[in-house]
Amino acid sequence: MRTYYKILALFVLCLGLAACEFGQVEQGRCVAYDAAKQTFVMVLDVNHDVNNPSYTGGVMKYTMPADPAEIGPEPTPGGRVQINTDKSEVIIYRDGKLETVKVEFTDIQKNIIPSNPKVAGHKFPVINKDEGTITEYSKRLHEIVTFKVPAEYLELPPSTWEAGDECRIYYKENAKHQALRFMNVSKTNIFKK
């Protein structure tokens, strides 16, 4: 008889777990943030890997968690989604959609960590309208890159070329656009005690 109750308890437990709705996690680059409305827009990274992102998951708008305890540092948005030196292109977010800009890289300096004097204390991007170039620092790639763009792109605001923060959210499938937890990966040190 005891075995019967154990099996029944196990069955009820399994049935209960089957009825639970587990959440999902999304990660991506923040390209827009409205603090007043508590909404943000992310370009989704299908790899979920800060060191090897693939921003091909689309552009999604979310609402911040209702519970302030579930919100990390606020995101800083930026228009630059990704630099791809192999393909000579920069992907930007402009006018509500992604745009791939063909560029000519004129200088690439590798292995430049954030404390390097070439970066520390300097403001990027550097837009040189006379030469038609933009110089940017990529923290992820540890590279300072200078590239030529078509003339009309030099008139865009500097924020177009700044990388937005990498963010991660937790949400339930039945409320996909409502974040239940928000983490600013760029501004959170998970190893800090």
Description:
- Residues 12-19 have low confidence and may be disordered.
- This protein folds into 2 domains: 22-76 and 164-187, Beta Barrel (OB fold (Dihydrolipoamide Acetyltransferase, E2P)), CATH 2.40.50.320; 80-161, no CATH class.
- It has a 5-stranded antiparallel beta sheet, with no helix packed on it. The chain has a 4-stranded antiparallel beta sheet with strand order 7-10-9-8, with no helix packed on it.
- The protein has 1 helix and 12 strands, in the order H-E-E-E-E-E-E-E-E-E-E-E-E.
- Helices cover 9% and strands 36% of the residues.
- The protein starts with a helix and ends in a 9-residue tail after the last strand.
- It is mainly beta and 193 residues long.
- A hairpin with a 4-residue loop joins strand 8 and strand 9.
- It is elongated.
- It has one helix spanning 2-19, and strands at 24-34, 39-44, 59-63, 80-84, 89-94, 97-102, 104-109, 126-128, 133-138, 143-148, 166-171, 181-184.
Q: What's the alpha carbon Rg, rounded to whole Å?
A: 21 Å
Widest sheet: strand ordering? 3-2-1-11-12
Measured as a percent range, the helix fraction is under 10%
Distance between the termini: 50 Å
Number of helices: 1
DSSP strand content:
35-45%
For the report, how would you describe the main beta sheet? Answer: 5 strands, antiparallel
Task: Assign the structural class, choosing from mainly alpha, mainly beta, alpha/beta, alpha+beta, or little secondary structure.
Answer: mainly beta
List unreliable stretches of 5+ residues.
Answer: 12-19
Shape estimate: elongated
The domain count comes to 2
Average pLDDT works out at 87
- Find the count of extended strands (DSSP E, 2+ residues): 12
Order of helices and strands: HEEEEEEEEEEEE
